[in-house]
Design goal:
Blueprint: H1 15-19, H2 27-51, H3 56-73, H4 81-114, H5 123-147, E1 150-157, E2 169-174, H6 186-198, E3 203-207, H7 222-230, E4 238-241, H8 252-261, E5 264-265, E6 269-272, E7 277-280, H9 294-298, E8 307-310, H10 317-322, E9 327-330, H11 341-346, E10 356-360, E11 363-367, E12 385-392
Parallel strand pairs: 1-12, 2-3, 3-4, 4-5, 7-8, 8-9, 9-11
Antiparallel strand pairs: 2-12, 6-7, 10-11
Length: about 400
């Protein structure tokens, strides 16, 4: 039966599934179910006070089903339009749960503080419904931001001798963290490519996590996506490194996708372009031996030219700075993707490694918030980014 056919092999090892621990199977799942029950009961109560009908039981069942489906979808990907649609819908449901629960709690707190003085009929019910509506507005706005990437512009000076006038300018576009899969597909990729083409870049780079769960065919329209990417061009080509969510470098499906999309892999390797050396690093710093030491990669470069390092993990910036690289382009952090997760993720990275432009020693680094989204199709307090870097050479 097509609906129950897995496209991912549970015995296969890839960088994402090997380290996956995004949803602990116990505490967070139980907590999510508790929030579903609380929210459903409170909204049901509010609706009943005003209309006489209590939809609480139905809301609880729907909310729990969406939360469990989202949990399930991080383990087993099924070859089905129904499955992929379910991932998107359950992702929105998780967003409603994430913002709706605190809004309802807040409405109960406000009611407890004001009910002695406010005598309006159904005051408590209206507070709950207003809080719920506010959460819905946050999620709708977050879904819009996730689907409409913005262009973010930076400048970087790669001149060895800053006293000499720039001889030329050069434009790189970094498309990091696309997360092509059940959530990100043909529609968003088409929009990203249209915006990128309008920038007329000299070079296009993909700094990891092109895919969502380590499998190219999680995206049902991967061939259409590849054709859209193939139409995107730059004089110095399109180069890509792999992140922790991507398939292994020797994955046959990945190789086929790259060939169809006209993307050249640059994992643990380097090329010498006319204006600078371009080095690509594989995975994240914790991958250890999977990553060829940067010092070794630098031996293959032209020392008279500046060096640009593509590294999915911003934690690699420190090593690049120690080795004297002029520029590092990274991603991985998503800038936390949505509030309040971005608050905690931001504190897990050293200063300057979380998002945006920074300087470590003499090395400039630019960390992208990512052009796509992971699993939950929301951006709250952040934007999906197409990063445009103008170099002075």
């Amino acid at each position: 039966m097509k609906l129950l056919t897995r496209f991912n092999d549970p015995d296969r090892t890839d960088r994402y599934n090997q380290k996956k621990n995004h949803w602990p199977k116990g505490s967070i799942t139980v907590f999510s179910i508790a929030c579903c029950l609380y929210g459903g009961i409170r909204i049901g109560y509010a609706v009943e006070q005003i209309t006489g009908y209590n939809p609480g039981p139905e809301l609880c069942v729907i909310a729990i089903a969406l939360a469990l489906f989202q949990r399930f979808s991080t383990d087993a990907q099924l070859d089905s339009v129904v499955y992929r649609t379910g991932v998107r819908i359950s992702g929105i449901g998780v967003g409603l749960l994430m913002y709706g629960t605190p809004m309802i709690v807040l409405s109960d707190i406000v009611y407890a503080a004001l009910h002695r003085w406010v005598l309006a009929p159904h005051f408590r019910a209206w507070m709950i419904l207003i809080g719920t509506l506010f959460a819905v507005c946050i999620v709708v706005n977050g879904a819009f931001h996730a689907g409409h990437p913005v262009v973010v512009n930076y400048q970087a000076d790669l001149r060895k001798d800053k006293s000499v006038e720039p001889q030329s300018s050069y434009r790189i576009v970094n498309l990091s963290d696309l997360h092509i899969g059940a959530v990100v597909g043909e529609r968003l990729i088409r929009r990203i490519c249209r915006e990128t083409a309008a920038l007329q870049p000299d070079l296009i780079v993909f700094t990891g996590d092109q895919f969502n769960h380590g499998y190219v065919n999680e995206c049902r329209d991967e061939h259409e996506v590849a054709k859209i990417l193939a139409a995107l061009s730059a004089p110095d080509g399109k180069w890509s490194v792999l992140g922790n969510h991507d398939p292994e470098p020797d994955d046959a499906d990945l190789a086929g996708f790259y060939e169809e999309a006209g993307i050249s892999p640059l994992d643990n390797d380097c090329i010498v372009l006319d204006h600078f050396n371009l080095i690509g690093r594989t995975g994240v710093v914790s991958d250890g031996e999977r990553r060829v030491p940067l010092q070794e990669l630098l031996t293959r470069t032209d020392p008279s030219k500046p060096t640009v390092v593509l590294d999915h993990d911003p934690m690699g910036i420190a090593q690049a700075a120690d080795c004297g690289a002029e520029l590092v382009l990274a991603g991985h952090s998503h800038q936390g993707q949505f509030f309040p997760y971005n608050f905690f993720v931001g504190r897990a990275f050293p200063k300057g490694y979380f998002h945006g432009l920074a300087k470590t020693k003499n090395t400039v680094s630019i960390v992208s918030a990512g052009a796509g989204v992971f699993q939950v199709p929301l951006r709250v307090g952040t934007d999906s980014e197409i990063v445009c870097i103008d170099l002075m050479l």
